Structure formats: C-alpha cells, structure tokens
C-alpha cells in the first residue's frame, strides 16, 4: 500500500478548495481547536444525537465522535461525482425492476442467473409486482472512497435502509454554530433541504388513489435501534409521524395508524426495518417489530413502502461486481464511477487468487455490514490470515475480496494535534419515477485511529462535515435585520 | 396523534411534575426536621405514596434513608431520579412531538442528575439540590409553555401536569389534615401551616388573598377551593376539564367517560362549601378525592390511549 493521497495537499501546496481551511488551521492554536471540539461534544450531547449500542456494556447511548475540521470538495469534483451517482442509482433501480420482472439481464447472460435467483437477498414475493412509480430504492446511500485527485471508487451500494443522513445535517448545524466566521469566508452548498426533498420523494411514491396529500409515516424498530435518533429526527424535520409496528394495523388490506382520534389511513411508509422483520405473515413469523398483513396491503396497491422489499439483491456484495455491466445494459452508457476490483471467492479462479494474496487483500462477508467480520490483509497477523483462509475454504460463497485501497486522508484533530486520517463519503441519492436528486455532499466518515482504514462508527470511526464549495467568489449576501423606523408615521 | 405518542406525552407531564412535587415535599420535611416534631420524614413518605416500598426495603425511618429513597433509589419509581429517567425515556420516544428547547432542557436535567451520589444531596446539600430539581422542572414547564405548538401534543403534556398536580395537592393536604382541623394552635402548628403553604408555593398567596394571620380553615379553603391559586384542587381540576374539552373540540366533539367524570369533579369543587367538607371530615373527603383523581387518570387512558 503506497502513501495515501492527502486531499488538502502537502506542505505549502494546498489544493484550491482547502485554501481557507488551511489558513484557518495555520492561524488557530491547537488549544482553541480542542476547546471547540469540547464545545461540539457538548452540543451533540445536548441535542441528544446519539446512537445506541446495546449488549456491549458501557453507556448504551454513545456519541459518534465528530471531527471539527471539515472535508472540502470543489464544485467541479462534486458535479462529476453526482453524475456518476445518479447514473449508478438509475441502473440499480432498473436492475431491480428487471430481476423481479422480465429478467432480461439474466436471459442475456450478462449476470449469472444463479447468483441472483439463489441469493438469499432475492425475494420471490416481489416477483411480478410493480411498486407504485416503478421505483425500488427511493433512498440509496452510495459509499465512495478516493485514492487520488480524480480517482473515486464506489466501495459499496446501500439500497435497503441506509442511515447516517441525520449526521450530515446535524454536523452542518454544529459547524455553523461553532465557526460562523469560517463559513462567511466560503460559499458552501447548503444541505438543509434534504428533509423536504425526502418528503417529496416519499409523497411521489404514494399510490395514485392517495391524492395530492398522502399520509407519510416512518416505521422504526423502536428506541433500541441504533438509528432511532435518526428516525425521529427525519420525522420531525418532515412533520410526519414515526410509528412502531404496534402503532399500525391492517384491515381489509388497508394500513391504519392508531391515533387519539381513532384509526387513520397511511399511504406511504418509509420503513427503517429490515425486510425480514417487516411482516410476520410474509417473512419471519417471530418478528415482533413488524405489521401483520403489511405485505398483502402493499401488494394490493394500498400502501407504498420505501424502500421496496427485496432491494437487498441490488446491493449484495456478490452482485456489486456487475453494477458497471448493469449501467451498460440498461442505460447504454459508460460507467462514470469505477468499481473496486472484486474477487468472488465462490469462483474457483478468484478463490485461488485470493488465498495466495491474503496479505494484500481486504476480505469481507458478502452479506455483512458495519465493518464486522472483515480481514484487512496487510494489517492482519499470520494467524488471522490462516483463520480466514480456512473460513473461505469452508464457505467460499460467503466471502469477497478486494485490493487494499490507499484511502485518501483529510486533516483531522487527533488529541491536540492535526494529523491526516483516512476517510470515505456516503452521499444520499433520492429517486422518483422521473427524477434523481442528491443533496451536495454527504456523510464523511473518518477512521480516527492512526493508520486505520475502517471508518464504521461501530469500529471507532467518526464523522466530519462535508463541504461542497460553490465556485463564484465572495461570501453570500446576508439580509439586514429590520429595525424600528426613526421618523413619525405620516397619516 | 398516535395513541402511543399521547401516552408518552401525558406521562412526560406527570413524571416531570412528580419530580418537582417530591422535591417540594422533601423540602418541607427538611425545614420541619429542625423543629423536632420527628414525624416529618414519615409523613413525606406517606404523601408521596412511597411508604409501602420504603418499609419493605428499610424497615426503619431515618432522614438519610428517606432522602435516599425519594431522591436516588432506582427501585423507587416515584423517586426524583427515577422520575427524570422516566420522563426522559418518554420524551425520547416522542422526540418528534417535542420542541428542541423542551428536549434539551429535560435531557440536560437528566444528564445533570443521573450520576448524583449521596454527597450531592445528603445533609446540608439537600436544600440546594432540591432547589435545582424545582428549577429544572420550572425550566421544562416554561419551555413547554413558550415553545410548543398549540396542538394536541401540548394539550396531553398539560393534561398530565395538571392531573399530577391535583393529585399532589390532595396528598399534601391529607398528610397534614390533622393540623388543619380547626382549634389547634401553637408554635409547632404555625410552622406546619407555613410548611404546607410553602410546599405548594402559596405562603405569599395566602397573605395576598386573606390579609390576615394563618388560620387552618383558611389554608384548607385556599388549597381546595380558591381558583386564583394555580395549585389549588379546583384550579388543577378546572385545568384538566378545560384541556380535555380543548382536545375534544379539536377532534370534532369526540368525548367519553373521562370528560364526564372530569366535569363532575370540577363542578363539585367549584360549588361546594368548605364547612361541608370539614363537617364530614377532611381526611375522608381527601381520600375520596385522591381516589377519584386516580379514576380520572384511568378514564383518560382508556379513552385516548387504549382506544375505548
């Protein structure tokens, strides 16, 4: 692994986008930065923005560490990314419509049929059913990493229930409070409209009979869920109810929520519950979180679910290598964002390659998340590598491997010194029948431990505010506050 | 509004109010402890409804044990810290229905109190600690009053607060009912009367309204029948009736047993005579009132939360 690309630039040669940030860092004593960091932590505690980690001992309500040094992208860089993201998500939605419909891409032999149809993430319940608006993954989170000035890769797609957008919004709020002067020296694309755009996306997914003002609700597994804060935050920002399974009931294939004024019909459910727990009648019968009869109501066209059940087949790690193929097949376009070269251990050639290069590769579970159950070859001990080799031989289809990328670094406040730390980026992509929308930026996650490449919050990662700089110079004009007029009112 | 949300808001109002009420009660006990009546710590246990739980655990009443049980002990669901934890947990479940000011006020209270150790509230530290509890609840009530949208969410918090307050005033009166029986007069009694009034922030109010020295019957009148005093029984129950009515109007006139019962209680308070109450025995009357208040709480939950 070579030396990582530092996004701010080294020494006196700073990238143009970081010019002001570099000047600010040079002019601010470390104690002051540390004091600001303490203030930031106080702000987050006060707002109660925590994520819950149960069953590991310690405080179950934890703060995700927030780094006060922003990550900056130039508008031109962002525009290229946004085009690539939009293209990718359009292809993923087309793929979902196809595999649950005509299956043309399988018949054309562009993706092995067994990889899709025998995948645990493939939901036969969805076959032959077209969701309202034809969209499957209304909200997608695409994880990007960078290795050089123009080298961005998609690390993984999250098409089911991606989380983290509340941090994108709260990080910006915190930065505005902590560093108003730094903001006034930049023109930064705002992120605050995300909740509005999310609501418009959800309303657009409603069944036609719901009319112009459909009732939207967020379905949460409850306050023990690690992202519960986010569910409430988004509901609050959109002005919709956050419901638990027990708040909903289905009668004659129509979904209602229990309210103080009696039952009220629900048209769109932004569900943050996994497919398996959505409806004990359709999926896991032991689910206490879901709503009995929800799938039947969905398939009767009486309620919309966002995201649609079965989206997991599009972000499965074994399907991931084929996304560029989807883009060519459905859109007839050249992929704008690159994939990380990926070896599927269930293929014999790939497996032989992986087993011989374990010290260079990252090995991941094909169906895992949160950075659990993964091997980073160059950082692992011999014993760990041997243990993984045995696991791969035993269950080859459970593993994929990728080269260890030298993730780019961004200056980060570590202890009381500023040092480079590796980052990734998760932008959030909203899709309706005829539009793809992306709020500029996304969630930057940073691996706070020196040398670490794992950015997941469950593994010691933190977050940063992500700035997309508008190019035209000069700070945005601010409107003057009104004052009482000095003269008398003439009658 | 979701029934579950209404439930959380209602109990959010009740638990925050209860935390302050326990602090008020403890403050009285602390003041009277100096006068050597010896009964105060036991009385506050009875007033807060915590006596059975306490006796099971401690067996003997000592000031330290009572303070610990009513402030910190997680086994006591009506203890101050338990109330804050329960209020916060309810608030957390309906984060979307609260304003940022309410949530952060409450969340900060919880953060301040959650790790309290005996050193923070035993002995000489107690009055300062209790003041802080009352201040935090005043802050929360102020945030609710100042920042909440005037919708159902606001009304359910108000409903919980008013009902809990009615319950508390009746209990405080009941614990001291013997002191309010006409005829008793002495230094100790005088201090007791002062303490009752202080516990419901009404000592000044007494002088403003009656402009005479403390008389037991007047104290009972003030705390039961005077609508000007925000913590009097008639004021609290009028507020419950008013809030229930506002919720009903917002729902196009949907009403149930809770509306009838609340109206009946309020009317009986508005139009009854103090002499009638005292004649039948203050304690008997208060016992009935506490029972009916509990019944009303149940009727509210039946109608709005369990969907009766």
Automatic annotation (TrEMBL), chain A:
A Pfam family annotated for this UniProt entry: CP_ATPgrasp_2
InterPro entries from the entry? ATP-dep_Glu-Cys_Ligase-2 (IPR051680), CP_ATPgrasp_2 (IPR025841), UCP005522 (IPR016450)
Q: Where is this region: Disordered?
A: 457-491
Q: Where is the composition biased (Low complexity)?
A: 478-491
Q: Give residue ranges for domain Circularly permuted ATP-grasp type.
A: 70-447
Report the SUPFAM superfamilies cross-referenced here. Glutathione synthetase ATP-binding domain-like (SSF56059)
PANTHER family, per database record: BLR5612 PROTEIN, SLL1039 PROTEIN
Protein's name in the database: Circularly permuted type 2 ATP-grasp protein
The species this protein was found in: Sabulicella glaciei
Automatic annotation (TrEMBL), chain B:
Q: Name one Pfam family in it.
A: Alpha-E
Please indicate which superkingdom the organism of origin belongs to.
Answer: Bacteria
**This protein is called what?**
Alpha-E domain-containing protein
Every copy of the DUF403 domain together lies at 1-304
């Amino acid at each position: 692994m070579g030396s990582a690309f530092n996004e701010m630039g080294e020494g006196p040669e700073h990238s143009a986008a970081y010019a002001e940030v570099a000047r600010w860092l040079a002019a601010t004593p470390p104690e002051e930065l540390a004091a600001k960091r303490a203030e930031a932590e106080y702000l987050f505690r006060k707002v109660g923005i925590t994520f819950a980690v149960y069953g590991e001992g310690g405080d179950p309500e934890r703060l995700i560490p927030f780094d006060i040094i922003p990550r900056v992208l130039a508008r031109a860089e962002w525009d290229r990314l946004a085009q690539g993201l939009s293209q990718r998500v359009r292809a993923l939605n087309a793929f979902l419509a196809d595999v649950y419909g005509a299956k043309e891409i399988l018949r054309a032999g562009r993706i092995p049929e067994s990889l899709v149809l025998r995948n645990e993430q493939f939901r036969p319940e969805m076959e032959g059913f077209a969701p309202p608006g034809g969209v499957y993954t209304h909200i997608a989170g695409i994880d990007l990493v960078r290795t050089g000035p123009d080298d961005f890769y998609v690390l993984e797609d999250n098409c089911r229930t991606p989380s983290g957008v509340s941090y994108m919004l709260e990080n910006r709020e915190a930065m505005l409070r902590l560093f108003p002067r730094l903001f006034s020296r930049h023109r930064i694309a705002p992120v605050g409209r995300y909740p509005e755009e999310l609501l418009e996306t959800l309303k657009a997914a409603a069944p036609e009979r719901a009319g112009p003002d459909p009732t939207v609700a967020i379905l949460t597994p409850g306050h023990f869920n690690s992202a519960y804060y986010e569910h409430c935050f988004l509901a609050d920002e959109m002005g919709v109810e956050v419901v638990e399974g027990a708040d909903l009931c289905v009668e004659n294939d129509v979904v209602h929520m229990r309210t103080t004024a009696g039952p009220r019909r629900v048209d769109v459910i932004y569900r943050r519950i996994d497919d398996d727990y959505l409806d004990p009648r359709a999926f896991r019968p032991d689910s206490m979180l879901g709503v009995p009869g929800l799938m039947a109501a969905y398939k009767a066209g009486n309620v919309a679910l966002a995201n649609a059940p079965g989206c997991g087949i599009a972000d499965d790690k074994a399907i991931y290598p084929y996304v560029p193929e989807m883009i060519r097949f459905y859109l007839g376009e050249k992929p704008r964002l690159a994939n990380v070269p990926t070896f599927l251990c269930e293929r014999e050639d790939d497996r032989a390659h992986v087993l011989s290069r374990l010290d260079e590769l990252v090995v991941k579970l094909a169906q895992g998340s949160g950075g659990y159950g993964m091997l980073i070859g160059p950082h692992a001990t011999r014993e760990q590598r041997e243990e993984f080799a045995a696991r791969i031989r035993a269950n080859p289809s459970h593993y994929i491997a990728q080269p260890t990328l030298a993730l780019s670094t961004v200056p980060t406040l570590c202890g009381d010194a500023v040092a480079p730390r590796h980052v990734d980026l998760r932008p959030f992509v909203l899709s309706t029948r005829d539009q793809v929308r992306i709020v500029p930026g996304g969630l930057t996650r940073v691996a706070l431990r020196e040398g670490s490449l794992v950015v997941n919050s469950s593994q010691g990662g933190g977050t940063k505010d992500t700035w997309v700089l508008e190019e035209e110079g000069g700070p945005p004009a601010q409107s003057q506050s009104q004052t009482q007029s000095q003269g008398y009112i003439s009658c | 509004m979701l029934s579950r949300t209404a439930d959380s808001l209602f109990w959010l109002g009740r638990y925050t109010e209860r935390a302050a009420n326990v602090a008020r009660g403890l403050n009285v006990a602390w003041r009277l402890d100096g006068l050597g009546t010896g009964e105060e710590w036991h009385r506050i246990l009875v007033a807060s409804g915590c006596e059975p739980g306490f006796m099971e655990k401690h067996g003997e009443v000592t000031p330290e044990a009572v303070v610990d049980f009513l402030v910190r002990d997680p086994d006591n669901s009506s203890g101050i810290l338990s109330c804050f934890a329960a209020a916060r947990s309810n608030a957390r479940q309906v984060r979307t229905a609260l304003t940022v000011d309410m949530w952060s006020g409450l969340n900060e209270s919880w953060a301040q109190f959650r790790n309290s150790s005996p050193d923070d509230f035993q002995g000489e530290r107690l009055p300062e600690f209790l003041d802080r509890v009352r201040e935090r609840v005043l802050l929360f009530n102020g945030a609710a009053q100042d920042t909440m949208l005037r919708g159902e969410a606001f009304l359910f918090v108000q409903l919980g607060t008013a009902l809990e307050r009615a319950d508390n005033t009746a209990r405080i009166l009941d614990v001291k009912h013997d002191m309010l029986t006409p005829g008793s007069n002495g230094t100790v009694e005088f201090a007791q009367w002062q303490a009752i009034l202080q516990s419901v922030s009404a000592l000044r109010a007494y002088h403003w309204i009656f402009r005479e020295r403390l008389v037991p019957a007047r104290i009972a009148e003030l705390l039961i029948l005077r609508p000007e005093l925000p913590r009097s029984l008639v004021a609290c129950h009028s507020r419950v009736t008013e809030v229930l009515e506002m919720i009903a109007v917002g729902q196009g006139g949907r009403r149930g047993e809770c509306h009838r019962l609340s109206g009946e209680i309020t009317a009986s308070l508005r139009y009854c005579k103090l002499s009638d109450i005292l004649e039948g025995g203050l304690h008997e009357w208060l016992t009935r009132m506490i029972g009916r208040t509990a019944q009303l709480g149940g009727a509210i939950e039946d109608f709005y939360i369990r969907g009766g």
